[in-house]
Design goal:
Order of helices and strands: HEHHEHEHEHHEEH
CATH superfamily: Decaprenyl diphosphate synthase-like
Distance between the termini: 36 Å
CATH topology: Undecaprenyl pyrophosphate synthetase
Number of helices: 8
Helix content: 40-55%
Oligomer: single chain
Shape: globular
Length: 246
């Protein structure tokens, strides 16, 4: 922990409160190494462990990881099954570390579409860590930004039909409070690894004013040293939110 802070050498008030990451490049890493895609996902899981630890050590409040998208269900069944097994292994192997480090686990997305055993792991760990005060580890599972917004509007329409909400009362706050991320600060920083220049249906509403950083590093090779460098770069950016700089 001490070495992480020395590496950054920054004040806690300069840190992004919420960092979101699109973890891209597992398949390309595997192809580059002449391995199958599953090996790329396994190596990517190790990178998750390192970045979660690094984020917690330097005092970031929320880390949202795009772990499995709504579109990922369309991948070959063998790959989807392998990803579910990796998720299961993550919850089992990291359970004690998460509890020990006071990490609070949250999951956003269509959790009901996940296998029953994964749903059980999520519920157990979320319940156990509910009152933890450390890093909020927010996993996006079976998540899509458009589906998130659509789901929010369906909830709002239901309230209107039951006379719990009037149409002219709807504002940005109303929409935000009905998204999967309700109660969480919007991301200050969105990192995408693998070099692709797109947001891939991730947190479409929430990243309206997020700072973007595209890393060419494939996710399995992404490490805490590069993570720290990106945090340093974030500190140098001027966030104006559409206003004129003072």
């Amino acid at each position: 922990m001490k070495s992480d802070n020395n590496c950054l050498s920054i004040n806690s008030d300069k840190l992004p409160m919420h960092v979101a990451i699109i973890m891209d490049g597992n398949g390309r890493w595997a192809k580059k190494k002449l391995k199958n895609r599953i090996e790329g996902h396994k190596k990517g899981a190790a990178a998750v462990r390192d970045i979660v630890s690094a984020a917690g050590n330097i005092g970031i409040n929320i880390l949202t990881l795009y772990a499995f998208s709504t579109e990922n269900w369309q991948r070959p069944r063998t790959e989807v099954n392998a990803l579910m097994k990796l998720l299961e292994n993550f919850f089992i192997s990291e359970r004690d570390n998460i509890i020990k480090n006071k990490v609070k686990l949250q999951v956003i997305g269509q959790i009901w579409k996940m296998p029953k055993n994964i749903q059980a792991f999520i519920k157990e760990l979320a319940d156990i860590t509910e009152k933890n005060t450390g890093l909020i580890l927010n996993l996006a599972l079976s998540y899509g930004g458009r589906e998130d917004i659509l789901s929010a509007f369906k909830k709002i329409i239901k309230k209107i039909k039951s006379d719990k909400l009037k149409p002219d009362e709807i504002n940005e706050e109303t929409i935000s409070s009905h998204l999967y991320t309700a109660g969480l600060a919007e991301p200050d920083l969105l990192i995408r690894t693998g070099g692709e220049m797109r947001v891939s249906n991730f947190l479409l509403w929430q990243i309206a004013y997020s700072e973007l950083y595209i890393s060419k590093t494939l996710w399995p090779d992404f490490n805490k040293e590069e993570f720290f460098e990106i945090i340093k770069a974030f500190r140098l950016r001027e966030r104006r939110f559409g206003k004129v700089a003072e």
